[in-house]
C-alpha cells in the first residue's frame, strides 16, 4: 500500500506520513502527526527518530543553500 500512495504523497510535498492499515484496508493517512515511530523503534531496535531528524536538518540546510527556492515537492524527493 505504501508503494501505491507514495508517489501522490511525494507530489504533494509530503516528506513523512503514517499509514494506518488494518488487515488489507488502509484506514487513514497521517501527514501531520505520523505516529508509530517509537513502537517501530521498540520492535526493531532501529533509531528511526534520529534518522528522520538528521534528514530534516539536511533538508533545511539544502533549502537555505538554495535561498529557499526549492519547493516542498523538491525537498521531499531530495
Short description:
InterPro entries: GSHS_ATP-bd (IPR004218). With 78 residues, the chain is of the alpha+beta class.
**Major beta sheet, strand line-up:** 1-2
Radius of gyration: 14 Å
Summed up, the helix count is 4
Element order: H for helix, E for strand: HEEHHH
Structural class by SSE content: alpha+beta
Number of domains: 1
Q: Would you kindly provide a written description of the structure presented here, covering whatever features stand out?
A:
The protein is of the alpha+beta class. The chain has one domain. Helices cover 54% and strands 14% of the residues. It contains four helices and two strands, in the order H-E-E-H-H-H. The protein has helices spanning 2-11, 37-44, 48-65, 72-77; strands at 18-22, 25-30. Strands 1-2 form a two-stranded antiparallel ribbon. A hairpin with a 2-residue loop joins strand 1 (18-22) and strand 2. The longest helix has 18 residues, at 48-65. The protein is flat. The chain starts with a helix and ends with a helix. The model has no long low-confidence stretch (mean pLDDT 88). InterPro entries: GSHS_ATP-bd. It holds the Pfam family GSH-S_ATP. Residues 2-42 form the Prokaryotic glutathione synthetase ATP-binding domain.
Attribute tags:
alpha+beta, 4 helices, 78 residues
Amino acid at each position: 500500500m505504501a508503494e501505491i500512495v507514495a508517489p501522490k504523497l511525494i507530489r504533494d510535498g509530503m516528506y513523512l506520513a503514517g499509514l494506518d492499515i488494518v488487515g488489507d484496508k488502509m484506514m487513514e493517512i497521517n501527514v501531520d502527526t505520523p505516529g508509530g515511530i517509537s513502537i517501530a523503534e521498540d520492535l526493531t531496535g532501529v533509531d528511526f527518530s534520529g534518522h528522520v531528524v538528521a534528514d530534516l536538518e539536511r533538508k533545511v540546510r539544502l533549502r537555505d543553500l538554495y535561498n529557499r527556492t526549492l519547493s516542498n515537492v523538491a525537498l521531499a524527493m531530495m
